[in-house]
Specification:
Number of strands: 2
Mean pLDDT: 89
Radius of gyration: 23 Å
Structural class: mainly alpha
Number of helices: 21
Low-confidence stretches: 515-522
Largest sheet: 2 strands, antiparallel
Shape: globular
Helix content: over 70%
């Protein structure tokens, strides 16, 4: 069978969406049939992703692969255009992996199971589409597609303040999306030709002031999703009310949409503006790392503590994007995938702990590790990954961003020293609040009131399997990062070269390397 011309990405996107439409007609009384159906669809789609990757993806090719393009509105050059390169392929694989595990994590859901699994499958296709589409207007539409499922998953299956959290989520993300729509239309109608094709838009010769305005608008939209402080406040509220599978989708995939779009739209399509905004991204990244880590200290709610930890870790992504080095940008992409795995594992375990203790307050726990030894061991392992223990993926990703930024010749030495010092402070803070969290939950004397009211049973095989599936790539990447970096190295190297050419001092260094002056001006001054 010749599969070279098979529409892999279109099939991967539309399969879960089409499958979700069949859920209302599946005969099912207690939700068991629907959950098995959803899991099987998820597994099939993930298998298609893996097969398409191994048979149709070339590591050495930095350009789009698995490209498909079908006319939609020819008069405006609107197309159903999809493709995958080194920026999108790792995140497409991550989406399939995390969503399939989230479907398994949703096994205990009994409230409106048809609607729940319908929304999970609809999100599955929509999230993959975000990373695959190559038409700017289509990108906006699929970006919006995931808003409604997440809103409903929060508003119906969330905690006591679920309506507040869901409303805040929709207001923040829908408000940010307006900037994407305005930017897409403005870019499409700029110049003599009208097009929404991302590649064509990236080749247009925009005036610098126009680029700066576009960059600022896109930055606001993607800062909400990443999230970047001060547009982050929806995330702790959403995580505070979400269920375990929704946690996994929020931490594992949704935050990565912001980081991906920041690279794809801001850096790749507006490189001249990126040269001006890069120091701002670095500063925002440092603020994320320090502020969110300190705020995590003060949280007594377990979900909110992990949520602020996520915000802190995503600060490394913005710094890596702004580093102007191959290593730094590679570290940013690696950090997105690594955090997706680690964040999903931690939030799943938070949900598993809550299911047993029925409390999220650290003051009400203590000593539960004696009765839940498997959960204690898994929570410890995932926390070690989050605090960037050597041998785990988080260590490699953060080290790459560190070294990439520290060796960057785009910034002054003073600026780099200050930023690296503050990043180091954030790295030191992380193990402190994570280890203290483990101590308060699992060590010490048992809370007799908690033990007397709750049946603290240990992890079941399904939960152990989910965490094992997440820990395998976390540890595998930690010991052999090339497992992942080889997928996107050619793309990030090409993009970094283009970004460096957009900075006059770096372009001059490239052309006149032997004549470099040690006092050459840099953008960090």
């Amino acid at each position: 069978m010749n599969t070279a011309n098979f529409p892999w990405l279109t099939t991967i996107i539309l399969l879960p969406i089409a499958a979700s439409l069949l859920i209302p007609i599946i005969p099912d009384k207690d939700g068991k049939t629907v959950r098995w159906y959803s899991l099987i669809v998820g597994l099939i789609d993930f298998a298609l992703i893996v097969y398409a990757f191994y048979t149709g993806y070339d590591f050495s090719n930095p350009d789009l692969q698995l490209v498909e393009s079908y006319a939609w509105v020819p008069q405006l050059d609107l197309k159903w255009s999809v493709g995958a390169d080194g920026l999108s392929m790792p995140l497409i694989i991550l989406t399939g992996f995390i969503t399939t595990l989230a479907t398994l994590a949703a096994w205990p859901v009994t409230l409106k199971p048809r609607l729940f699994y319908f929304l999970i499958l609809a999100m599955y296709g929509g999230q993959i589409a975000v990373f695959a589409v190559q038409d700017m207007l289509l990108f906006f539409l699929v970006w919006e597609l995931e808003l409604i499922p997440v809103y409903l998953l929060l508003a119906i299956w969330g905690g006591k303040k679920r309506q507040y959290a869901a409303t805040k989520f929709i207001l923040y993300t829908a408000g940010g999306s307006l900037f994407i729509l305005v930017g897409a239309l403005t870019m499409a109608f700029y110049g003599d030709t009208v097009t929404f094709d991302m590649h064509s838009l990236g080749l247009k010769d925009y005036a610098l002031n126009f680029q700066l305005l576009l960059y600022a608008g896109f930055l606001i939209a993607y800062a909400v999703k990443l999230p970047i402080i001060p547009l982050h406040t929806w995330l702790p509220d959403a995580h505070g009310e979400a269920t375990a599978p929704v946690h996994m989708l929020l931490a594992g995939i949704l935050l990565k949409m912001g980081g991906y779009a920041l690279i794809r739209m801001n850096a790749q399509m507006l490189p001249d503006a990126h040269a001006y905004f890069a120091p701002v991204l670095v500063i925002l990244g440092v603020v994320n790392i320090i502020y969110a880590a300190l705020t995590s200290f003060a949280q007594r709610n377990l979900k909110r503590k992990i949520a602020y930890s996520s915000i802190s870790h995503m600060g490394f992504v913005t710094i890596g994007i702004a580093s102007f080095t191959d290593l730094g940008l590679s570290g940013a992409v690696l950090q997105m995938v690594s955090h997706g795995l680690i964040g999903a594992s931690l939030f799943f375990l938070v949900g598993a702990t809550y299911d047993r203790t029925h409390t999220l307050m650290l003051d009400e726990m203590g000593g539960v590790g004696k009765r839940m030894q498997k959960i204690f061991a898994m929570f410890t392992a995932c926390s070690m990954a989050s605090l960037a223990l050597p041998g785990m993926s988080g260590f490699v990703a953060e080290l790459m961003v560190f070294v990439g930024f520290a060796t960057s010749d785009a910034y002054s030495s003073t600026f780099k020293v200050i930023v690296v010092f503050l990043m180091a402070v954030g790295v030191i803070l992380t193990p402190i609040y994570l280890l203290s969290m483990l101590r308060e939950i699992f060590y010490g004397k048992e809370n007799e009131e908690l033990v007397s009211h709750q049946k603290l049973i240990d992890a079941e095989p399904r939960e152990v399997f989910i965490i094992a599936c997440l820990l395998v790539p976390i540890i595998g990447i930690g010991f052999y990062p090339k497992l992942l970096t080889q997928i996107y190295d050619s793309t990030t190297v090409q993009l970094t070269a283009r970004l460096r050419d957009s900075v006059p001092t770096l372009a001059q260094k490239k052309e006149e390397a032997p004549k470099l002056s040690l006092n050459a001006p840099t953008i960090g001054n």
